[in-house]
Amino acid sequence: MSHIPRKRFGQNFLQDQGVIADIINATDPQSGDVIIEIGPGLAALTEPLLARVPQLHVVEIDRDIVSHLQQRFPADRLVIHNADALEFDFGTLARQLKPGGKVKLVGNLPYNISTPLLFHLASFGDVIHDMHFMLQKEVVDRMVAPPSTSDYGRLSIMLQYRYLMDHIIDVPPESFYPPPKVDSAVVRMVPWETLPHPAHDYGLFEELVIAAFAQRRKTLRNNLKGIATAEELEALGLNPGDRPENLGVAEYVSLANWLADQHPNRLTARGS
């Protein structure tokens, strides 16, 4: 197929056979697995996945690529959902395909929508067994970063709250057509069976993290002014002089749970 990559869809097509094999091996598809691929593109992952499973579902927004895939693969083996992954209901599809079970997600995600897509997928964790995604390396570094590092931030906290994550491999630009201007990486995301640090009010927890990182170079004392006093932070075992990146997921959840139980309206009041 002669397809001109579309910038508005963030299309960079994987073509390195070694990298493709590494991703398939990391995904470890079994014959009984239900797999949904996001952004199949020119079928670099689609074809080897179909060699391992009897049927594959894909979500693709580009109608030209959909037409190509329909001509290339039998409809009973490749089920195509012509849709925007940012709006697609992966939960409903997963429950239809594997009632009471969980599905695997895999894909070379468009880099221009990767962060909002990751947050969209977070709401379907209860029906997902694992996810293997190709992303911009800079994003993967932020996803897996530990506290007190320059890459650690809101994305790290919100994803590590829900997932156990591993940086699998790095992928150079020449592995794609056209080569992107950035390095890439593959990440494995496995939803926690039981959240290690459950928030009493997830929305409040999320708002707290946003507030804490509003000005990254400032201290918690400054960023959380009106939310928690220095004395209250100290009583919770936190250092008001720390910067937001110094706190781990457990500490943010602990602070959010204290707010939810003792002062649930402080964040709302501060923003009004």
UniProtKB/TrEMBL annotation:
It is an enzyme of class 2 (transferase). InterPro entries: KsgA/Erm, rRNA_Ade_diMease-like_C, rRNA_Ade_Mease_Trfase_CS, rRNA_Ade_methylase_Trfase_N, rRNA_adenine_dimethylase, SAM-dependent_MTases_sf. Coiled coil: none annotated. Pfam families: RrnaAD. GO terms for cellular component: cytosol. It is found in: Cytoplasm. It catalyses: adenosine(1518)/adenosine(1519) in 16S rRNA + 4 S-adenosyl-L-methionine = N(6)-dimethyladenosine(1518)/N(6)-dimethyladenosine(1519) in 16S rRNA + 4 S-adenosyl-L-homocysteine + 4 H(+). Residues 19-193 form the Ribosomal RNA adenine methylase transferase N-terminal domain. S-adenosyl-L-methionine binds at N12, L14, G39, E60, D84, N108. GO terms for molecular function: 16S rRNA (adenine(1518)-N(6)/adenine(1519)-N(6))-dimethyltransferase activity; RNA binding. HAMAP family: 16SrRNA_methyltr_A (MF_00607). Specifically dimethylates two adjacent adenosines (A1518 and A1519) in the loop of a conserved hairpin near the 3'-end of 16S rRNA in the 30S particle. May play a critical role in biogenesis of 30S subunits. This is Ribosomal RNA small subunit methyltransferase A.
